[in-house]
Amino acid sequence: MDRALWFLLRLRFVAWGRRIARGLQGIKGVLLVAFGMVMLSLLVISAVTQPVHRVDPETLRLYGTGALLAYCVMVVLTSVGEPAVTFSAAEVDFLFPGPFSRRELLAYKILGSAFSSLITAGFMLIWLGRYAHSLLAAFLAVMLVLNFLQLFSMAVAMFSGLMGARAFNIQRKVILFVLTVAIVVAIGHWLQVRQGQGPIQWMAAAEKLPIFRLALAPLRWFTEVFAARRIWPDLVTWASCALLVNLIMVLVVFLLDVQFLEASAAQSERHYARLQRMRSGGVLAGRSGTGKARWGLGEPPVWGGMGPLAWRQMLALMRNLRGVIVFLAMFILFGMGPAFMRSQGRGSGAAIALFFIPMMTLFMLPRLTFDFRGDIDRMDVLKTLPLPPWRLVVGQLITPVLIVSFVQVLVIIVMLVGGAARHVGWVAAMVVPFNFVATAIENLVFLWFPVRAVPTMAVDVQFMGRQWLFFAMKMLMLLAAGGVASMVGTIVYFGTGRNMLPTLISAWIVLGIAGALLVPVVARAFVKFDVTRDTPA
Amino acid sequence: MSILVQDYYKVYGQTVAADGITFSVSPGEILGLVGPNGAGKTTTLRAMAGILVPTRGKIVIAGHDMAKEPVAAKSALAYVPDDPRLFDQLTVWEHFIFVAKAYRLNDWVERARQLLVTFELADKRDSLCSELSRGMRQKVAICCGYLHQPRAIMLDEPLTGLDPYGIRSMKSSIRKYAAEGVAIIVSSHLLSLVEDLCTAVLVLHRGKQLLHAPLAEMRQQLSQSGRHETLEELFFRLTEENSAPLAPPVEPAPSATAGV
To answer: Which residue is closest to A11 within chain B, CA to CA?
Structure first.
């Protein structure tokens, strides 16, 4: 590899350290880093002090190999539309027109990823270390797996690019299509024979086939590294085997030597645009549309100027609907679902709803940034609008309040239909004022301490510290508002002879007052927001 | 010839981005690349920089075929994109060090210092590029392009984001390098800039080459034919004459070239 590229790798590493050091400039930076370090240490301590839970090697082999196989299949299936090796925008602008060969650029990319995986593997040890026989084994396994995933994606991208070039004419495309159909039919037949079985049973059955066992052996070696009991011969042998697999992947990538620059440049453009959108509007804003708006909302209502603001945010939400739906589905399936199932039979439906419904707000709101947080780069436009600040605040906050409330009410309806106690429905009455208070607090903290939603580098302690600190701050404020509402509700409940309606009305009024009091505070924070000074880089 | 583009054809699915473009730029010549949005200017420049692969055609930089000798061709060129993205966590000077190493430069430090002064970046030498304004980043990218003394320079919208001082430095640097025998291509929507700075013009529209001629010769021809058009008037006439609805794309013909 060209020595300039080595130099660039070194500079990148130095820049990483420099950024951490720069984070320590100023009292605020030091405090945030210190807080981040404390929280990180607590995480490490809790991980270290937890009882060691070594995974059964057979289970690890089966599940680990299965997970790696699933990843490989997914990469093969999803690489069809976007076969490219990803470079950053600066790399495209500086390295692609520079005097470097394609292979040198690939070597640079592979080495850069390998260095990053060292840091990531070290970080992941916090959670994975206790499942392995030694920290070294866990570290090596994670690092080798991360490298493998990167190299495999790269090899598939290169192969896909090569096939794309070869399969340019129609005859070759037809042959390729027929081959793909034949493979799909064969797999379908194989799965049909094992109808009624789950993926793990398929894996177990497939493991018995010598050809499959042979084909999966390289993937299994990675799990053997994690499961190694002794350094010699277990860890050394299996780590060498896994390393060999990675080296072969490197060789494959170099031998394919596809003209990847064009596809990479195009992909880099898309990634860069997505990152800019995410930095500006939050994680869900990263998705790009097709360029044409399929749905509209008609003319916005006026509502004293609040209507157009809410309408604009609602439109932004609709144009990101796919991302929002995927996020909500993932949240409900993987976050709420198992928790609900685990808690079945261990309490009344109302108690579960009382716990989970507010939790939904806490977890959903940080991602649904269709308010001031999504307008971080449009604050100057908002400030020029001919509206009193309080109306502007209400208009900006309506959309996340409505969407979170809508999902919560939907979950409550599902619970009621599923046989939950009737008084679970009472929780639905509280969601709107509660969400308004939570959204106002979320925006207040943002306007006081504006930050971008996306970290600019891996393992950013200052970013983590800031996130944890803000979370604690928001929780305290929310608990104060919720606590007062609960207290008043409880007093009214017992004062009225356990009558639920006045209880709900009183709690609703308290939350409503809290929301109403927060509006001028948020408005003041918005007025004090200095676009030049406070807009983060 | 420092830059030679022969029958450059680029197709994306059903879209023909460049349709048999042919031109050359001699040492000392400044070619203005003009055309409406989507004309194929950036696509052409990116192919000349070795980022895009032509569907058909030949690109030669300083005698090196971009397809056969990409490293040698790239060593001789500098390409500054319209919105250059820098390495955010590197300083301005570290960018220079990297360029110096990449192009195997030895006595570059004094030249780099001079470039910093010329483009009013001297006080930003040790600033991180993430902290620079749009115009300053543009200047850094231009300095990086100039540092290795290329034989061919391609500038995509070079004045975007520059302040009046930057524009003046930019224009004088283009003239200076051209006087030293560097072939320069300037892509711009600013027709007054092209008219003021360039020695030749290439008009693209919907991927097609509408005009390629030395500006002096073109003015003379227009004058002889009784037309007293400015470049702006000529540009609008040419592009409006060729603004008929697009025909369905066809497979590239073996020798479809266009040149004036």
So the answer is: B90
Position A181: which residue type?
Answer: V
How many CB atoms are closer than 10 A to CB A91? 21
Q: CB distance B131–A93 less than 8 Å?
A: no
Please report the number of interchain residue pairs, chain A to chain B, with beta-carbon separation below 8 angstroms.
82
- The verdict on B86 touching A (C-beta cutoff 8 Å) is yes
- Specify whether the CB–CB gap between B36 and B205 falls below 8 A: yes
3-state secondary structure A117-178: HHHHHHHHHHHHHHHCCCHHHHHHHHHHHHHHHHHHHHHHHHHHHHHHHHCCCHHHHHHHHH
Is B87 within 8 Å of A12 when comparing Cβ atoms? Answer: yes
What is the value of pTM for the model shown? Answer: 0.72
Question: What residues in A contact B84, CB-CB < 8 Å?
Answer: 93
What are the structure tokens assigned to A177, written together? 């299509």
CB contacts, 8 Å: A257 with chain B: none
DSSP A214-232: HHHHHHHHHHHHHH--SII
A289 dihedral zone (left: phi>0; alpha: psi -120 to 50; beta): beta
Tokens of A250: 């490197």
| pLDDT given at position A358 | 85
Q: For chain B, give the mean pLDDT.
A: 85
User: Which residues in chain B land under pLDDT 50?
Assistant: 246-260
Give residue B132's pLDDT.
Answer: 87
A377: Cα within 13 Å, side-chain hemisphere: 10
Enumerate the β-bridge partners of residue B185: B31, B154
Q: Which pLDDT belongs to residue A343?
A: 56
Closest-CA distance of chain A to residue B201, Å: 24
pLDDT of residue A484: 93
Series of mean pLDDT values for 10-residue runs along chain A (537 residues) = 88 82 76 81 79 74 79 70 71 89 88 87 81 85 89 83 64 70 72 64 69 79 86 88 92 81 78 71 57 66 83 82 76 64 56 77 85 84 84 92 90 80 81 94 89 60 77 90 92 89 92 94 89 71
Q: Which residue has the tokens 């539309």?
A: A81
Per DSSP, the three-state class of B9 is strand
Distances A435 to A204, A406, A428, A432, A515 between C-alpha atoms, Å? 47, 11, 11, 5, 9
- 8 Å CB contact of A12 and B144: no
**Does B101 contact A16 at a Cβ distance shorter than 8 Å?**
no
**Which ipTM value was assigned to this complex?**
0.77
Strands B64-65 and B56-61, bridge-based pairing: antiparallel
pLDDT of residue A490: 92
Nearest-CA neighbor of A284 among A365, A203, A350? A365
Task: With beta carbons less than 8 A apart as the criterion, state whether A411 and A355 touch.
Answer: no
Outline where chain B has alpha helix (H). 41-48, 70-75, 92-102, 109-118, 134-147, 164-179, 191-197, 215-224, 231-241
Sequence-separated (6 or more) residues with CB below 8 Å from residue A508: A429, A430, A433
SS3 for B74-138 is HHCEEEECCCCCCCCCCEHHHHHHHHHHHCCCCCCHHHHHHHHHHCCCHHHCCCEHHHCCHHHHH
Q: Which residues contact B133 (CB under 8 A, 6 or more apart)?
A: B161
DSSP letters spanning A450-517 = ---SS-SSSS-HHHHHHHHHHHHHHHHHHHHHHHHHHHHHHHHHHHTTS-HHHHHHHHHHHHHHHHHH
Mutate to test the interface with A, among B48, B85, B131 (most CBs of A within 10 A): B85
The per-residue pLDDT for A401 is: 94
Residue B119 CB-density burial (10 A; 0-12 exposed, 13-18 middle, 19+ buried):
buried
Q: What is the pLDDT of residue A168?
A: 54
Looking at residue B253, its pLDDT comes to: 46
Q: Say how far apart CA A516 and CA A508 lie, in whole Å.
A: 12
